[in-house]
Amino acid sequence: MPVLLPGASRLLLLPRALLSMASGSPPSQPSQASGSGYVPGSVSAAFVTCPNEKVAKEIARAVVEKHLAACVNLIPKITSIYEWKGKIEEDSEVLMMIKTQSSLVPALTDFVRSVHPYEVAESNHDEPCSC
């Protein structure tokens, strides 16, 4: 599963268990939460940074149009500090908060990687993360 990325694009997908715990239901509980229709572990959130609002809006609109997410919130003017190619970098970026079904995470990840302008699209858990 992708994690918070070092360097260029940083993508964070919250695991189903973490979202289940945030909802107040234990992750192993398969039943629906108090009649809401929510099934613990069925939703995920992805956080993706973009270089500017234009790119973020284009990706966000495409993700929703392709039904890869129910909603994307854009948070402008964040400051990202990270290590890239041995140097500490600082950039102004736009954060996309993408809310989706857990079953769509692989397709969402593939799509974002295919259209995102940054050089680095992911990191493995085994790689050090400076974020």
UniProtKB/TrEMBL annotation:
Which source organism? Equus caballus (Horse)
Q: What is this protein called?
A: CutA divalent cation tolerance homolog
Its family?
A: Belongs to the CutA family.
What domain of life does the UniProt record list for this protein's source? Eukaryota
The subunit field of the Swiss-Prot or TrEMBL record says: Homotrimer.
Classification via Pfam families:
CutA1
Q: Which InterPro entries match?
A: Ion_tolerance_CutA, N-reg_PII-like_a/b, N-reg_PII/ATP_PRibTrfase_C
Q: What's a GO biological-process term for it?
A: response to metal ion
Please state the span of the N-terminal signal peptide per the UniProt entry: 1-24
UniProt keyword annotations, A-Z: Signal
